[in-house]
Automatic annotation (TrEMBL):
Keywords tagged on the record: FAD, Flavoprotein, Oxidoreductase
Pfam families in UniProt: FAD_binding_2
Cofactor requirements of the protein: FAD
Name listed for the protein in its UniProt record: FAD-dependent oxidoreductase 2 FAD-binding domain-containing protein
Transmembrane intervals: none
Highest taxon of the lineage: Eukaryota
GO molecular function: oxidoreductase activity
Entry annotated with the keyword Cell inner membrane: no
FAD-dependent oxidoreductase 2 FAD-binding domain mapped to chain residues: 20-466
InterPro entries, sorted: FAD-dep_OxRdtase_2_FAD-bd, FAD-oxidoreductase_2, FAD/NAD-bd_sf, Succ_DH/fumarate_Rdtase_cat_sf
Amino acid sequence: MSFVSEVVSSLTGASAEVYDLVVVGSGFAGSMTTLNFLEECKKLGKRGKVALIEAGKEGERCGASRWTMAYLRLDKDNNFDSDWKHEMKASQVYACQGVLDSPIAANGLADQEYCARMEQEVPITAQYLIDHGVKFNHHDEKNVLLEFKTNQHFVFPEGGGHAIINALFDHIRKFEGVTIMWETQAEHLLTQDDGTICGVKVRKSDGRMTKVHGKKVMLACGGFEGNREMLGKYVGPRTEHLELIAPGLKYNTGFGLKMGLEVGAAVAGSMSGMHCELVDTRATKPDAVIWGHNYGIVVNKHCKRFYDEGKRHLFATFEMIALETWRDQDQQSYFVTDKTIMDRFRPGWVYDTTDQEPEQSDTLEGLAEKLGLDPKELKKTVDEFNGAINENEFDLMKLDGKRTTGLSPDKTNWAQPINTPPFYGYPMKAQLTFTYGGLKCDLDSRVLATTGVPIPGLYAAGELSGLFYNEVSR
């Protein structure tokens, strides 16, 4: 990595009070930066010192990184989807899974050079994780139209993001040159008279402030999901009704953005957007996403459909229906389907990310009662849906045109009749996963000032680096 190489090459045998590198945040980006730096020092026979600063407690840390399933858009050879950069360029509002859950762009604003570099780096990063003990599960998907250029294939680490974090930290802890500071909130950057960044001012768990001096600073501390004030300011009203999808997100308080802006960093992307996902309201675990909204119907608390569940393939619509649930449906929606779909998809990732069994009944009225819905209204909605479906063949491997006519809204693909008992359902709500916008960086992770020049000594990575754009949440 060019960033790591630059830092290591600048080592001068710093005193005990000054670190060669200060990393803020211990998620994927921060942990990878820390370990790369330590290994590069060892390879070159240099003694480098790094401080890893984490606001969270050791068991809750890492933003969303340790809690995600970490579905990766890779082929059988761990190459990244070659079409992703083109989708990012052409998309209007498009949700797409990438490496380490790299997700959203809209209106074609994503930096194409950044996207191209990411595609080049992905196989290297994947092999790095494998070499450090992460086991990848390779999955051939036979039911869900992925529309990836990976031949209906994707990858996920055994044990999810937690396995990645554990593997990286197992290696980090083997080095003597690292100091890990838990429950330490970075709040301000330290600067020299000429504007060079020279460390971080932090608040310890006892409430007292102290300074952590460093020759370089990497900000990898996520977005502002855990900051209600910033959510209200940038995203808009009613964000207080959104729960966080993972416990670690409460530590993503936007201080990385604030620190960068204080020293004149430019902003990349629109901070007026956020990413949500529909989760099982009964779940006792984080990230309990109900992925398969395409393959049945989704209704509100009045048993009315409100979104075209077959508008596009799953990864192009799962965020949008979650935003609709939050914005217009009082945070209450319900997925309904039947035996035909459940037999095809279970066991599997589409409906088994939650730790709860779906509600089930031999009648639609019985299912409605278990979901807390009006039995007559749910039966009426399903009957109207079934009666409006055309005679096209049901084909999960394409946008099949098996649709309804005369409904509001119509379902434009995969409108399979819901008529084979038992019937199944999940109660769902939207939860906040991450925010958009960040600090503008170049391809070497250097944070850029509003004038376009790099701010000396300051770098950013991960969610904070501001690749993603979206304005659909308002």
